[in-house]
Amino acid sequence: MTIRLGDIVPDFDAETTEGPIRFHEWLGDSWGVLFSHPKNFTPVCTTELGQVARLKPEFDRRNVKVIGLSVDPLDAHAKWAEDIAETQGYAPNFPLIADPERTVSGLYDMIHPNASDTMTVRSVFVVGPDKKLKLSLTYPASAGRNFDEILRVIDSLQLTAQHAVATPANWKDGEDVIIVPSVSDEAAKEKFPGGWKTLKPYLRMVPQPGK
Ligand code: BEZ
Questions:
Q1: pTM for this structure?
Q2: What spacing in Å lies between the alpha carbon of 42 and ligand 1's midpoint?
Q3: Which residues does the UniProt record annotate as the domain Thioredoxin (predicted)?
Q4: What are the residues facing 22 on neighbouring strands?
Q5: Where would I find the H helices in the chain?
Q6: What is the pLDDT of residues 39-86, one digit of tens each?
Q7: For a Cys staple, 31 with which of 19, 64, 171, 196, CB 3.0–4.6 Å?
């Protein structure tokens, strides 16, 4: 099933390393990141899970719950966690879904048969508190993801959910942002009383609201 931006993401029941969950209920009012990794006891995945564990306080600070998924069974997750702690210095501190029947992987279209019939690709789904898909990414097994980038884009998603702005290329939290084209100059005067810089009529830069 293809899940498109703005769709309510599929709900599911799953076994995880932190007990059984029902996804939507588990998310509650938080933002969420659901990410799959192809297989347990593989090198790139080991580094990724260590990185997510290291960055967990950054996800918490943004009110984002993170949850991983692997098609391996629960007992294999527990054994692998020891290797992750030993080699990466961080043990997983977030739930990992065991999906040996490929139920969740199928619901979220995480198995791309031209890549592999049995392993998931590296999917990332960022879900808003309204349970709608805000962003998705698909990486091949050979490329580990940049979780700093995922935090960066969450900053953009959370900011632009609150204010009539968009974020430019390579933007980072605290830098100037763009007034969205649908806001007229007249309306912008009310929203951005501190003023803005017009580089082109369609490109108006303003300090990040709330900073
Ligand atoms: C890895 O995580 O290292 C990996 C997993 C599946 C295929 C290739 C690499």
A1: 0.97
A2: 5
A3: 3-159
A4: 13
A5: 23-27, 43-61, 74-88, 103-107, 147-162, 185-191
A6: 999 999 999 999 999 999 999 999 999 999 999 999 999 999 999 999
A7: 64
Structure tokens given for 88: 């990466």
Distances (CA, A) of 129 to 36, 43, 57, 192: 20, 33, 19, 26
Q: Is the CB of 55 under 6 A from ligand 1?
A: no
Rounded CA separation 125/3 (Å): 9
Domains by residue range for the chain, with CATH? 13-145 (3.40.30.10), 163-206 (3.30.1020.10)
CA distance 26 to 28: 5
d(CA 22, CA 5): 22
